[in-house]
Fold:
Amino acid sequence: MEALAGAAGWLAANPLTFLGAVGDHLMLSLVGLGLGILVALPLGVAVAHRPRLAEAAIAGAGALRTIPSLAVLAALLPLLGVGFTPSVLALALLALPPVLVNTVTGLRGADRAALDAARGLGMGAVRRALQVELPLASPLVFAGLRIAAVQVVSAAALATFIGGGGLGDLVTQGLALLDTGRMLVGAVAIALLALATEAGFGLLERHLARRMGGA
Amino acid sequence: MIELRGLTKRWPGADRAAVDEVTLSVPEGTSCALIGPSGSGKTTTLRMVNRLVEPSGGSLRIAGEDALKQDPVRLRRGIGYVIQEVGLFPHRSVAENVATVPRLLGWADARIKARVEEVLTLTGLDPARFAARRPHQLSGGERQRVGVARALAGDPPVLLMDEPFGAVDPVVRGRLQEEVLRLLKTLRKTVLVVTHDLEEAVRLGDAVAVLRDGRMAQHAPAAEMLARPADGFVAEFLGSDRALKRLALLPAVAARREGRAEGEALPPGASLRDALAALLARGTKAVPLADGGVATLDAVAEAGAPMSAAAAGPAGSP
Structure:
């Protein structure tokens, strides 16, 4: 109770600091996620129909996934220094595996007959990918995006360790200053943000599934 | 007109060609059924015509033009393509599916809309009821109709069909075959159809081509092939009841004799098979024909005999 009161007190006293941290957190997450998708999606499309490359990509993604987020952040520190950029790059690396794996799996599982018909009717490769393959793979691709988004939003809390800012700052500052209220505001906000991301993507996913009908 | 000359497909690493110097021509406005056991290369042959499979040798002309010199993607837009699994795009409505090729051809929206309604009607689907539906809301037969409508939408002179009615139940299949056959004849399309079902081949193909191990075993009008199989393989493939199957292709009037008989007359387009069936079912020696006269058991046997000159059908090999 006391801790909650402390949190409320801190929040009432520092609304701008809080909002700034939320903004930084969202910016880190969005840019990191966007960058990851920008790399993973085209890569997935490119390798999906080349069995050997696809396997290599999935194995690579699996390896990347097993490395803890904090280790990725720490490993980037000597290479890229501190601040926003290395944090965003680390988050992009985290977003990569789920998007890549789900894109490859989704594309490989897409209805063969529909693809054959698309080719046979005279659709070129790019049109096939955009108008048939990706829409058919979209439920899985979207599930990959959801996983990636939740991971990135959670992991963005660690950006504070390499000076990337965000809600993680409130937690580390709270710890350092023994300010439980500040720490709690940061922790709860991170958790809520992750839950909201999951729920939001879940809603979008259901909407998409309805639009796709029985596909 | 589809013209294959010495068309060959060799897959890398295979010890024999999948399709070995197949020569075949399908005259404009006619249909040819490609048939053969599995692995005989019939689907590969079909897929070389729209270059989903790139030929390793030989030449291919469609409507007089060298199809191997054209851009394959453009070539395919001028060739209708129907497959067993239909392959409708599940995320698109029936109308959008049918509009695929017209869109690729860059038609104006109004023209596309009119054409979609036109081909849906042609294939027996009421546009008002079906245009907005999704493929998963259709029955198997309706789906296959949409597949045919989609293939016809760009008004291609040539149509390729790979086991087009293989996935629908037998009752629907018979009706679909009948309707599509009539439609393609009316539209004067040149059709190459792959099937493993002999009855279907005989029903759909003006000519039938039997493939064996990638080579052409025989290519002839259906009635002629059933009467005179080129060799033991073709004879066995056609079955020991081939003379019976052939009766379905010959008109009942070929067995016409003067005379009168009791009972209902056969309908005008009846075949010798219908006449034989009526004779057996009624247990009589003669059944009346629509335009007068009767068909007798003896006359049916005579007209249906493979060597009968009267019943040789459209003579000559293509």
Summary: The first helix of chain A runs from residue 2 to 13. Chain A has one domain: 2-214.
